[in-house]
Design brief:
Blueprint (H helix, E strand, L loop, with lengths): L1 H12 L3 E6 L4 E9 L3 E10 L2 E10 L3 E7 L2 H10 L5 H13 L3 H14 L4 H9 L2 E4 L2 E4 H8 L1 E4 L2 E4 H71 L6 H72 L6 H4 L40
Antiparallel strand pairs: 1-2, 1-5, 2-3, 3-4, 6-7, 8-9
Length: 360
């Protein structure tokens, strides 16, 4: 009877939520934003640290199996509050329900009541933290307002002055720039050395292949003479003589063909080696010409990193992390710890549900 009356009052007040059962098995709930013949738009609320996240979604009416009008969380809260005993578990359960339904102030009220009853209660403290409150001098205050008033920020879970956070960001950027430029310098030096070596190797192969091609000229000349001589031999009268002559011609032809093929392949190998040598030599020259500029960039980046480090406290944890040394490898490797880890989303308080009182 009470629930029916509450629902009726919610509908009459025009502040009810709408719950939709969809054909895909999902159930969604939110505030009705707009509705026409084919579509319905809901604004759903999701808890987030310090504020509620609002998401508008549009659903085709053809995908809706069932529609149900329900009282809003604010309307449900008064009824839940009235039937919740003043005990630690029940007050904590109601605080958790309020947080999950984006009733931030109500969640704070009941979490604080839990701390009045149990000063060190971890559930209540986590709920307050998830709601965006921070304990300062034994009082729970709005974190965003406290940070703004005291020029503080939270970085990776640590609360630090905004100036220190900016100094750390500046140092991290400078260190990354130094590591990147020094790595590029090392790679360029290795490329200059490696390409110069491979160019020399290619030139050696080109000379060897050219010499091989030249040496095959004599073999070809001899094979050509042997072929001419074989063809000039008299045919002969007997079968054996004719057969021997033909075999001599075929052998000479084969030797000539093989020699010409070997000479062609040697010339191709020489040309290929010459091209590779020319390309590698050019790459080595380009790399050598870039080294001076890169050395200047590394020196500048190192000076900027040291200047940024000087603005940090001597015991700052960032300074204890070793700078990634440039590795002598052409293949670039991503330096460790380049990007600061993003702070994780606040964990939802794990509050057990009770059968009586404020729980469902």
């Amino acid at each position: 009877m009470r629930s029916s009356l509450l629902l009726l009052l919610a509908v009459l007040a025009g502040a009810a939520d709408v719950e939709l059962s969809l054909t895909n098995g999902r159930t969604v709930r939110g505030e009705l934003v707009s509705e026409n013949d084919g579509l319905i738009t809901l604004r759903s609320r999701f808890p987030a640290r310090g504020a509620a996240k609002l998401v508008e979604s549009v659903y085709p009416k053809a995908d809706i199996l069932k529609r149900k009008e329900m009282p809003s969380p604010a309307q449900q809260y008064d009824e839940r509050k009235a039937r919740t005993p003043d005990t630690v578990p029940e007050q904590c359960t109601l605080a958790q329900w309020a947080y999950e339904n984006c009733l931030r102030e109500q969640a704070k009220t009941h979490a604080l009541r839990v701390l009045e009853l149990d000063t060190e209660n971890a559930w209540a403290r986590r709920i307050l933290d998830n709601c965006g409150y921070i304990e300062v001098s034994a009082k729970w205050v709005d974190e965003a307002e406290h940070f703004k008033a005291n020029n503080l920020v939270r970085v990776d879970g640590e609360i630090v002055p905004a100036g220190l956070a900016e100094a750390r960001r500046t140092y991290s950027r400078a260190r990354l720039a130094y590591e990147t430029s020094s790595r590029k310098l090392a790679e360029t030096r290795e490329m200059a050395s490696g390409k110069a070596g491979s160019a020399a190797t290619a030139e050696g192969k080109a000379k060897e292949a050219t010499a091989q091609a030249e040496g095959l000229k004599k073999t070809i000349e001899e094979a050509e003479k042997a072929l001419v001589a074989a063809k000039e031999e008299p045919v002969g009268r007997g079968e054996e003589e004719r057969k021997a002559r033909q075999q001599a011609i075929e052998a000479a032809t084969k030797r000539l063909s093989e020699a010409r093929t070997q000479q062609s392949e040697a010339k191709k190998a020489a040309d290929k080696a010459k091209q590779a040598g020319t390309s590698d030599k050019a790459s080595a020259e380009r790399a050598k010409s870039a080294i001076a500029e890169l050395e200047t960039a590394v020196a500048k980046a190192e000076a900027e990193m040291k200047a940024a480090a000087a603005k940090l406290p001597a015991d700052d944890p960032l300074l204890s992390k070793p700078v990634v040394e440039a590795k002598s490898t052409v293949k670039a490797e991503a330096p460790a710890n380049d990007k600061p880890e993003q702070p994780a989303e606040p964990e939802k308080p794990k509050v057990r549900r009770l059968r009586s009182g404020g729980g469902d």
